[in-house]
Amino acid sequence: MMIDTFCKKQLVQLFDAVDIKIGGDRLWDIQIYNPLVFRRAITEGNLGLGESYMDGWWDTGDLEEFCFRLITSKAVEKIFAPVMCIGDWIGKAYNLQQPSRAFTVGEKHYNAGNDLFKGMLDERMIYSCGYWKEAKTLDEAQEKKLRLVFDKLQLQPGMRILDIGCGWGGAARFAAEHYKVSVTGITISTEQAKIAREQCADLPVNIELIDYRKEQEPFDRIYSLGMFEHVGYKNYRNYFELISKCLKPDGLTLLHTIGSNIPCTNGDPWSCKYIFPNSMLPSASQITKNYEGLFILEDWHVFSYDYTLTLRAWYENFENHWPALQSMYNETFHRMWRYYLLSFAGAFRSRSIQLWQVLLSKNGLPGQTCIPR
Fold first, then answer.
1. Residue 113's pLDDT is what?
2. Which terminal residue of the chain has fewer beta carbons within 10 Å of its beta carbon, N or C?
3. Dihedral, CA atoms, 20, 24, 27, 31, nearest 10 degrees?
4. What share of the chain is helix, strand, coil (3-state, %, to 5)?
5. Cα–Cα–Cα angle for 259, 75, 227, rounded to 5 degrees
6. What pLDDT does residue 367 have?
7. Residue 299 burial by CB count (10 A; 0-12/13-18/19+): exposed, middle or buried?
8. Stated pTM of the model
9. Distance between CA 339 and CA 264 in Å, rounded?
10. 8-state DSSP, 281
11. How far is CA 135 from the centre of its chain?
């Protein structure tokens, strides 16, 4: 009982520091239904907090605001959770993203159900951050993001394009339709590949179910939208070497990725266990040091808050479609997915994680170049 009393005192202090009240009546206050939450949160950090939320041990009227307050105050960093130390050791000792494990995240997350993602995402099923400049809807934000990407890449009719982590084919289809290019899209998800082939059947788009490390023919342009988070820090250099090998001398490549403010060697334990197995977020220094000598930096675009807006839109769609989905998923999944979307929304809003678009060339763009915004 002494440890429970200690853990409760510690958590109450953390909550007090960010103006969260246990049993309070504000939306972001926390209601606790099982006192074991105190022990799990203090001894297991976000893993314990997230799992206990999934189990219905606690709740809050505004999960995004709750997470935003905890993350902004860096309260979680004051918790010494053994699971974090174990994760750091495993990340340093093993290559968790080696080729034999490449399809794990596809099986765990991206194959979770096309009905789920159709209900949650925009009309093109783009599963990465939208660009909300002058956009009012999710569909508009995702179309603006695609135009931003392809205008930065200076697509011209007849070019051959490689889409690494092509998802359900929405970006590849948009490029082929609007920019008159041919696209090879690769994915590690069988469910994504099925939809992508259907979406792009009438266009010069080829969808392959392969790991990105398979050698490809030369391309004029290469991009990845929300895939680099699955590469792993031990493979960053190999990723850029492969891109360089597959890109023509005058080619451009664009990396659209979530980023971390500090270098890391593993991902968040809860996210890795339930949402994105073996994932981790690159820091700016981990990206730059691994492309140096291979590419020239042309542009680094930050629009992190746009991901908060995107996640809110996904959450609203998810909740609106939940009545049609609940026969296929249980309430634990419902709470898990809610925790995923809203905790990430809070994290982007706090700027503890970032959204970057990095444009690279092999030999430098000639003359004066204005990068689209």
1. 79
2. N
3. 90
4. 50, 15, 35
5. 20
6. 86
7. middle
8. 0.91
9. 23
10. P
11. 21
- pLDDT value, residue 20: 96
CB of 277 closer than 8 Å to CB of 109? yes
Single-letter amino acid code for the residue at 149? V
**Can you tell me whether residue 308 is helix, strand or coil?**
helix
Q: Are 20 and 65 in contact (CB under 8 A)?
A: no
User: Which pLDDT score, from 0 to 100, does residue 87 have?
Assistant: 47
What does the pLDDT read at residue 77? 63
Hey, how many other C-beta atoms are within 10 angstroms of the C-beta on 105? Answer: 22
Which residue matches tokens 């179910």? 209
Q: Which domains does the chain have, with CATH numbers?
A: 2-80 (no CATH), 97-361 (3.40.50.150)
What values do phi and psi take at 187, rounded to 5?
Answer: -145, 160
Mean pLDDT in runs of 10 for the chain (373 residues)? Answer: 82 92 97 95 92 98 97 70 50 50 53 86 98 98 98 98 97 98 94 94 96 85 96 95 96 98 92 90 98 98 98 98 94 97 97 97 91 96
What local confidence, expressed as pLDDT, does residue 368 receive? Answer: 87
* C-alpha–C-alpha distance, residues 264 and 289, integer Å: 14
The secondary structure element, H or E, covering residue 254 is: strand 247-260
Among candidate residues 347, 338, 223, 209, the one with its CA nearest the CA of residue 281? 347
Amino acid at 218: P
If you search the block for the tokens 């309430």, which residue do you land on?
331
Q: Residue holding tokens 């599963």?
A: 127
The answer to whether 174 and 168 are in contact (CB under 8 A) is: no
Q: Going along 1-53, which residue ranges are E strands?
A: 30-32
Residues 6 or more apart from 16 whose CB is under 8 A from it? none
